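Section 5.1 Outputs to date
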Amino acid sequence: MPVKAMPDYLRYSIIVSLFTTLILATSCQPKLSGRFISTVEPTQITTAEGKTYTLPKADDSQQIIYLVRHAEKQKGGGDPELTSDGTARAERLAKILADVPLDMIYSSKYNRTRATAGPTAEAKGLSITNYNPRKLEELRELLFDPASAKKYTLVVGHSNSTPNLINLLLGEERFAHIPETDYDNFFIVVRDAEGNINITDLKY
């Protein structure tokens, strides 16, 4: 008995079904944005759930900048210290970055930012270099100038200066100021040799 050819409408239906399945599978790939992290390595992160993901566009040849707002601060005063929760967060930051071979740590001169960077600086044997959060263009030049740029850099800032600096690095206004009650933002900026930039926004 001769085998009948598959009708065109049925063949078309199968192709559409396969294409839809492929699209859905691609769209279900895990998104890193907003995930809580436990550890960071030069080219990958491990989330709080213990899952490991490769950072987008990160490899050993690229420059990587880690940016955080200072940890929880005490109320009142012109230059407050960290609270006990803030101190714990600063220590957690050092643990998260334990496997990153940091070359440079930048912080504004204030107690809360320097105290946030302190445990990481001590663990890495690095000094903390001050920057002026009101002159972010100067910091951008330091970060990108081949004469001063480092491969792995941590920058500790404020609810306004951190997103403002990221926008400067990106060359576009993408990130708004961080709410005053949020202290857990963790940004990773990856810049390749051609100057292309990819950013991943996480939590810690």
